[in-house]
C-alpha cells in the first residue's frame, strides 16, 4: 500500500456516489477499495438497504486495515411510492424500474448537504447524478464521472447522439453503420436502449444535462483496460474531449471478497453449494449461465433455456432469480433428470469466484458490462444473450471486435420485452457447443479468450496499464488546481 511519507500531510479524501443498481455499485465499491489500497481515505455515500449489499466488501476491506467506510443518506421511498427497503433496481419488479430513476432525482439535496459538510478533495460520481458537477465546482474540487460501462458502448452512444443514423433508417430492423468508430460496427434500431430509440424530448433534456455534467468533469474513470479499449479512449478524447483513466478489470483485484449481496445464510449456502459442486467437475467442462442482477425472462423463455442447457450436453451451473415463478417454467422432472450434470442456483452466485474456477469453460451472459469484463478477464469464451440497455453494444465488442464470443441466436433482436423473439432450446444448444465443443474454430476462440484474459490480469498487476491508470488518476486529483490554495492535500 502506498503511504504518506510526510507526517504533516493528510491523506487524500475521496467520496464515491454509486447509483441504485447492483451493476453500478459493485464496480464503484471496487474502485473505492482500490483507492483505499493506495492510502486514499475513501467514503461511499449510500442509502441504507444498498449499504447492506456492499457491507461484506467494505467490512472485509476495513478489517484488512484499508481506509474505507460508508456514509448513509435516506432513500426517498415514500416520495416514489416504493416499499421500505426497495432501493435498488434488483429489488423491484421491472415495471417499477422508473421509480428507482425517479428516486435518484430526489437525492440532490442529500448529496449537496453531505458534500458541503464533509468537503472531500474529490467526488467520483455515477453519471446519473449530474448535479454533483455543479456542487463540486462550488467546492473547488474535481468531479470524476463513472458510467459503469466500458468505453466501447460509451463511444457507440456518443456517435449515435452526434450523427443520429438510427433516426434516418426506414425501420427498426434496417442495419446502419455507427459512424467514425475505430471498427466498422453495424446495429439495428431495435437493439438500442430505449432512450436512443425514442425521440422523447424529456429524455433529450435529461441527456443534455448529463452531457453538460460530463464536460464539467475532470474526466471519466473506466472499469476496463487499455489493451481492450484504448482505441475508444482516443476516440472519446478526439470527439468529446473527455479524459479517461482505465483502472480495471476491478474484479481482478477485489474479486475474492463477497460482492453485491448481503452476507446472509442464503448467500453463504449458495457459495458453498457452487464451490462444492464445481470441485467435482472436470477442468474447463462447465458452462456457467447467469444474467446479472435484474434480468427478466418470460416463462416460455425460461423453459426453452432450461431445455437448451440440457440439450447442449455439457455440465452447467445456472443462476435463476429467486421467486421467478418456477412452477410455471421449470420443465417436468428437469432437476431430477439433470442432477448428475446440472446445478440450478436460486438467487445470488459468487460469480467472480465461479468464473475463475478451473472447472468453468464457458459463460452464457446477458452482456452486462461487469459480466462481460469478468468473463473476459477469466479467459473464457462466451455465449451472448443481451437483453436491454447497452448490452447489444457490449455483445458487438466481444463477438465482432475481440472475437471471443458467439451469439445465442441469430434471429430478431430487441431491447423491448414485447418485441423479443423466444430463443429456442436448439439455438442455445448450438451456441453452447460452439464455445465448449471440439473443432478448430472453437479452439481458436478459446485460445484468444485465454490471451485476452492474460492481458486483463497483467493490466491490474503492479506496473500494468490499469495500475498506472489509477496512479495517474490519483495524481491528477492531487494536481487539481480548482481554486484551492493552501489546502494541504498530498
Ligand atoms: N453477480 C453476482 N452473482 C449473481 C449475479 C450477478 O456476483 O448471481 C454480479 C456479477 O459478477 C456482476 C454484477 O453482479 O459484477 C452484475 O453486473 P452486470 O453489469 O453484469 O449486470 P447488471 O446486473 O447490471 O445487469
Automatic annotation (TrEMBL):
<dbReference type="Pfam" id="PF00201">
    <property type="entry name" value="UDPGT"/>
</dbReference>
<keyword id="KW-0808">Transferase</keyword>
<dbReference type="InterPro" id="IPR035595">
    <property type="entry name" value="UDP_glycos_trans_CS"/>
</dbReference>
<keyword id="KW-0328">Glycosyltransferase</keyword>
<dbReference type="InterPro" id="IPR002213">
    <property type="entry name" value="UDP_glucos_trans"/>
</dbReference>
<comment type="similarity">
    <text>Belongs to the UDP-glycosyltransferase family.</text>
</comment>
<dbReference type="GO" id="GO:0035251">
    <property type="term" value="F:UDP-glucosyltransferase activity"/>
</dbReference>
<protein>
    <recommendedName>
        <fullName>Glycosyltransferase</fullName>
        <ecNumber>2.4.1.-</ecNumber>
    </recommendedName>
</protein>
